[in-house]
Design goal:
Number of strands: 0
Structural class: mainly alpha
Shape: globular
Strand content: under 5%
Order of helices and strands: HHHHHHHHHHHH
Number of helices: 12
Helix content: over 70%
Largest sheet: none
Length: 270
Amino acid sequence: MSPADPSLALHALLFVVAVAAGLIDSIAGGGGLLCVPVLLAVGLSPAQTLATNKVQGSCGTFSAATHYLLAGEASLGPLVPAILTVFAAAAAGTMTVQRLDPHFLTALLPVLLVAVALYVLVSPRIGDQDRHARLGRGAFSLSFAPLIGFYDGFFGPGAGSFFTVGLVELLGLNLRRATAETKVLNLTSNVASVLFFLAAGQVVWSVALVMAAGQLIGARIGSRAVIKRGAGLVRPCLVVMSLALTVKLVGDRQQVWPWLWATAKALVGY
């Protein structure tokens, strides 16, 4: 099949994949694990895949973010400073990735994702109750938020997990609210990236529109589930998606394990 193929079977496949990805992404992030391989498989080039995936994924993020906002799980007011810094940082990251190779991150990222999974499993701060904040909103908006925003524009995998952990650990938010605010910040970084992809003309609209419809539905289902079940749903999903992203990255870059072994030996002095 090709992306120009008008067959109902292709469109149905893309729609179903997008529904599943939107549901997953609204809960714990990582919907690209489903979408990117499928987009490549139906014949899109790598550049078209990245651009089309960002556009359709942004629709799911928009659906989840608006649902969380309307349900009162997140408020725009306190997030405005972080939205501004994340947008600027994501735009800078998207411009930077056009000049630099993000290859080095594929070696480091599995380590960070495993650390996220372990943190979510063992940390007493992860739950349905707010905790003591380690940073104020202003400091968070000037430090951690733009850091992850830049990363999302530059590379992307796991950005949602990093946002969520930062909101819990640094601002003391409960996991449900952290997930809701993550979607707003994710939407911000996605919009910044999408603007540059649109300018490059790499979006395959026949695919993006079909998948956007699926994303809107899946994200709405997932965000409703988070509001209803809270940490009991988000916590295991965060662990599973962090480990799934790790497995994918390790599979993509088999040299990760030799790099980790060499790093471990250097740390212990061998």
